[in-house]
């Protein structure tokens, strides 16, 4: 039996098993192993697993797996945690240019540990229903705006799962974000997210709050947008373009090392 050295990181409650795989020894086709490592009862426990690998053209490559064991699309909070992990390993100093599932990203780490992660430009959003829009921020997201004072009691698992597996999204899946607008502009937008791949509500979703901020900009929100998830607060900055696209999109928030260890695999 072998042992695997791992690190645990979290970004506003979105938690990840991090593996330094610069020697490229982790078998990314071993879906059973990834599921085991992410299992909260039998393994380490996490919303996903991330490999940090060398790359000839970038500071590093981020390889992200959902908790179901399979390679996932871009993970914003995971990206911020990977940047913090790369800094811990000495791979980067305070700024970086790295590769993820959706292409290259830039990021910087502030002295207080806050990570500013540049997301991909977003081409626009598709109105699904009166209070729902769909957009891709590196991962697909449905943003559904809720009536005031209803988000706390909402069954995010049931409602999110019903949308994720409905006829429109069943084949490729989507993340589902339920949003409540603030009563006054100085308060944060409230967000709860059902994540595909995890197939449950998570405490936070980085690409999700990014999607919410951009969708909210059509409803009066201005950059920077302050968002509150069950796991903590994040900010999103952006530049809205005349053609309804968004450029210079940044996801900003903390990324924290929790612990490290070894596990028999």
Write structural notes for this entry:
With 265 residues, the protein is of the alpha+beta class. The chain is built from 4 helices and 17 strands. Strands 5, 6, 7, 8, 9, 10, 11, 12, 13, 14, 15 and 16 form a 12-stranded mixed β-sheet that branches. The protein has a 5-stranded mixed β-sheet with strand order 4-3-2-1-17, with helices on both faces.
Task: Summarize this structure briefly.
This protein has 265 residues and is of the alpha+beta class.
SSE map:
Layout: E1 3-11, E2 14-20, H1 31-38, E3 48-53, E4 61-66, H2 76-89, E5 95-100, E6 103-109, E7 114-118, E8 126-129, E9 132-136, E10 140-145, H3 156-164, E11 175-180, E12 189-195, E13 200-202, H4 206-216, E14 225-229, E15 232-240, E16 246-254, E17 256-264
Parallel strand pairs: 2-3, 10-11, 12-14
Antiparallel strand pairs: 1-2, 1-17, 3-4, 5-6, 6-7, 7-16, 8-9, 9-10, 11-12, 12-13, 14-15, 15-16
Descriptive labels:
4 helices; single chain; globular; five-stranded mixed beta sheet; 17 strands; 41% strand; twelve-stranded mixed beta sheet
The whole-number mean of residue pLDDT values reads 97
Q: Strand share of the residues?
A: 35-45%
Which shape, going by the Cα principal axes?
globular
The tally of beta strands, per DSSP, is: 17
Percent of residues in helices: 10-25%
C-alpha end-to-end distance? 6 Å
Radius of gyration: 18 Å
Which sheet architecture does the biggest sheet show?
A: 12 strands, mixed
Number of helices: 4
> Structural class of the helix and strand makeup?
alpha+beta
Which spans of ≥5 residues are poorly predicted at pLDDT below 50? none
The secondary-structure element order is EEHEEHEEEEEEHEEEHEEEE
């Amino acid at each position: 039996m072998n042992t695997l050295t791992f690190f645990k990181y979290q970004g506003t409650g979105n938690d990840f098993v991090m593996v330094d795989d610069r020697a490229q020894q982790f078998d990314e086709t071993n879906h059973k192993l990834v599921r085991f490592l992410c299992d909260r009862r039998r393994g380490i426990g996490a919303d996903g697993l991330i490999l940090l690998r060398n790359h000839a053209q970038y500071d590093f490559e981020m390889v992200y797996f959902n908790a179901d064991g399979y390679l996932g699309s871009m993970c914003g909070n995971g990206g911020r945690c990977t940047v913090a992990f790369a800094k811990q390993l000495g791979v980067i100093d305070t700024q970086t240019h790295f590769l993820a599932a959706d292409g290259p990203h830039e990021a910087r780490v502030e002295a207080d540990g806050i990570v500013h992660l540049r997301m991909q430009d977003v081409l626009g959003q598709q109105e699904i229903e009166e209070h729902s829009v769909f957009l891709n921020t590196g991962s697909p997201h449905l943003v559904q705006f809720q009536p005031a004072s209803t988000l706390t009691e909402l069954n995010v698992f049931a409602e999110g799962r019903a949308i994720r597996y409905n006829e429109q999204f069943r084949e490729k899946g989507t993340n589902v974000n339920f949003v409540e607008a603030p009563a006054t502009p100085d308060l944060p937008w409230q967000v709860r997210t059902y994540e595909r791949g995890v197939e449950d509500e998570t405490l936070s979703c980085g690409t999700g709050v990014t999607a919410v901020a951009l969708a909210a900009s059509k409803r009066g929100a201005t950059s920077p947008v302050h968002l509150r998830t069950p796991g903590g607060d994040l900010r999103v900055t952006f530049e809205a373009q005349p053609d309804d696209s968004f450029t210079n999109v940044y996801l900003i928030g903390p990324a924290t090392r929790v612990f490290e260890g070894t596990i028999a695999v």
